[in-house]
Amino acid sequence: MLQVSNTVYLSEVPSVTLPPYHTTNAYWILDLGRAVLVDPGDGQEASIDILERDWESLGRPVVEAVYCTHYHLDHSGGARKAGDAFQAPIYLSRDDQACLRDHGGDPTGFQTLSPGRISVGGMDVEILAAPGHTPGQMNLWLPDDRGLLAGDNVLGNTTVVIVPPDGHLGQYLHSLKHLESLELAWIGPGHGGIVRHPGAYLAQYIAHREERNQQILALLSSDWHTPRAIAEDVYRGKLSDAEMSMGEWMVRGHLAWFLEQGWIEEREGQYRKVGAHDFS
After folding, report:
1. CA distance 9 to 1
2. Which helix (H) or strand (E) segment is 237 a member of?
3. Where are the alpha helices (DSSP H) in 103-168?
4. Which of 40, 20, 38, 88 is nearest to 188 (CA)?
């Protein structure tokens, strides 16, 4: 277990997730013998064992809630087991409960996680709506610490996969810019290491997305292209042939947003830029 700040602790738990990661970051917010657990992982027996061991190390605090930032199973799959282990209610946003149901999961037992202020012991925590990776993703902002538990809006070692139908690039960029405005001291990402220079990190995240937007739009200015052809151009030298399907998947996230904005048109699975655009 890693102490992130005076009131936040990280339990790294094994999970089935996207490479290069093999674990999920579960966080404890602790004050005055009270705690909430954020993102308990996918429910593997080893994960629950780690959470129970770390809870013992924290002095067996009263766990008031288990919060899931979003519905993906590497974050929410262990919620029921954790809720049972710590005798705590489990929470997930309404939109992500619907996503879980749509993807064949069962949201039974989840209470609704909504934006607003909660108290943990004597400390205030703000639940922030931060969609983009999923429609109903929530982040937790700790004003006293100037810290953020970001779910999968931020990862410690890579950028984030934003693909439809769950992901929405426009919403994601809006969320990143809002998080940037908080002037954070640290970010606890969904996977990977703690981000200790969040201003520069978020600026880099935003610049990366906007540069990729410009790169794809420039390519579509010249001719019609399939998503696969776009991926092979923009990820040349970055992804292997075996990984290019993932690149195509990510390109489709950009294309879906461009179509919404009216910046491109589609014909028989190919895309081309139309007219002017801006990113405001």
Report:
1. 7
2. none
3. none
4. 38
Return the structure tokens found at 213: 């937007």
Q: What is the pLDDT of residue 276?
A: 63
Structural domains for the chain: 2-163 (3.60.15.10), 207-273 (1.10.10.10)
Can you tell me which residue has the tokens 């067996």?
A: 60
Contacts of 148 (CB under 8 A, 6+ apart): 139, 140, 141, 142, 154, 179, 182, 184, 186, 187, 188, 198
Phi and psi angles of residue 19, each rounded to the nearest 5 degrees, phi first: -65, 150
Interval 85-109: pLDDT, tens: 999 999 999 999 999 999 999 999 9
Cβ contact 150:179 at 8 Å: yes
Please give the model's pTM, rounded to 2 decimal places: 0.93
Q: Computed from CA positions of residues 232, 157, 54, 124, in that sequence, does the dihedral angle turn out positive or negative?
A: negative
Q: How confident is the model at residue 238 (pLDDT cuts 50, 70, 90)?
A: confident
What number is the average pLDDT over the span 22-35? 97
Q: Are 167 and 159 in contact (CB under 8 A)?
A: no
CA gap 277, 107 in Å, rounded: 40
- H/E stretch holding 53: helix 45-57
Distance CA 257, CA 28 (A): 35
Q: Whole-angstrom Cα distance, residue 223 to residue 41?
A: 44
> Could you tell me if 183 and 199 are in contact, meaning their C-beta atoms sit under 8 angstroms apart?
yes
Strand 110-112, strand 264-267: pairing:
unpaired
d(CA 187, CA 100): 26
The continuous run of DSSP H or E covering 82 comes out as: helix 79-86
Q: Tell me the pLDDT band of 157, cut-offs 50, 70 and 90.
A: confident
Gap between the Cα atoms of 42 and 138, Å rounded:
18
Q: How confident is the model at residue 278 (pLDDT cuts 50, 70, 90)?
A: low
